[in-house]
Amino acid sequence: QVQLVESGGGLVQAGGSLRLSCAASGRTISSYSMGWFRQAPGKEREFVAVISWSVGSTYYSDSVKGRFTISRDNAKNTVYLQMNSLKPEETAVYYCAASRRSFGSSWYASTGFYDYWGQGTQVTVSS
User: Fold this and answer.
1) Mean pLDDT for each 10-residue chunk of the chain (127 residues)?
2) Is 45 left (phi over 0), alpha (psi -120 to 50) or beta?
3) Cα dist. 25→3, 30, 42, 86, 97 in Å?
């Protein structure tokens, strides 16, 4: 199985940037699609971005497209989420997730698509 550990969260002013990292161990992430979700207090866990294992295709929530970038470094077994122009409403715990499933067989924006989850890292955007 895969163990995932997020890092890079913190306090940032509105309009600022953060880069989150998700370090994987146990298995190489080259065989997994890797996603990012976020969950604000009292809210449901929300899809943010995903990168496929096959050809590196990326997909984003409409709310973050153009501002966030997901990438992977297979040599470091790490996936990243670069977040620019952050907004206060994006304050949340951000979670990394890994999936062995095919994009064609299930919905990558659903939490049920993913097999493994990290512990989360807090991102707070001040206004």
Assistant:
1) 96 98 90 95 96 85 97 92 98 96 82 96 97
2) beta
3) 5, 12, 31, 29, 13
